[in-house]
């Protein structure tokens, strides 16, 4: 096991891991909250689907965060870690595409749409940087 240096890539990796773990846990715990159950009930009452996608996304985010933390300490072989990081990157890109491009692009207006879209792109680019640094 090689010695890991503490540099900007380490802190970027750590920040991404913490963000993914936190959003994953929040997504899982809020899925069964009273408010979330109410919204799903209203959605179902008006003919919408009671999709499992939000909880699935939260579980994937949590797993991705854990993988990033484990990867910090070289417990995963470099080749496997590279594949996992690429899968996380692709997952995030698909998530952005589904959430911002396929679902009401530029709604309610361009700048309201652009702010969270830009934040997601920063995360995507950060994931790419972490992937490239580990390969």
How would you sum up this structure, described in words?
With 135 residues, this protein is an all-alpha fold. It has one domain (8-134). The chain is built from five helices and no strands. It has helices at residues 8-31, 34-45, 53-72, 78-101, 110-134. Helix 1 runs antiparallel to helix 3, helix 3 runs antiparallel to helix 4 and helix 4 (78-101) runs antiparallel to helix 5. The two termini are 16 Å apart.
Write a brief caption for the model.
Helices cover 78% and strands 0% of the residues.
Record field, number of beta strands: 0
User: Helix- and strand-based class?
Assistant: mainly alpha
Order of helices and strands: HHHHH
Q: Percent helix among the residues? A: over 70%
List the helices and strands and how they pair.
Elements: H1 8-31, H2 34-45, H3 53-72, H4 78-101, H5 110-134
Helix pairs in contact: 1-3, 1-5, 3-4, 4-5
List keywords for this structure.
135 residues; mainly alpha
């Amino acid at each position: 096991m090689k010695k890991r240096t503490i540099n900007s890539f380490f802190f970027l990796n750590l920040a991404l891991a913490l963000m993914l773990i936190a959003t994953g846990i929040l997504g899982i715990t809020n899925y069964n909250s009273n408010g979330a159950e109410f919204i799903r009930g209203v959605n179902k009452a008006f003919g919408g689907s009671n999709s499992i996608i939000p909880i699935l996304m939260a579980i994937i985010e949590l797993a991705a965060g854990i993988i990033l933390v484990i990867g910090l300490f070289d417990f995963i072989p470099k080749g496997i870690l590279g594949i996992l990081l690429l899968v996380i990157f692709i997952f995030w890109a698909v998530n952005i595409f589904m959430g911002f491009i396929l679902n009401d692009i530029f709604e309610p207006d361009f700048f309201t749409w652009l702010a969270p879209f830009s934040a997601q792109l920063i995360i995507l680019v950060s994931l790419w940087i972490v992937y490239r640094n580990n390969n």
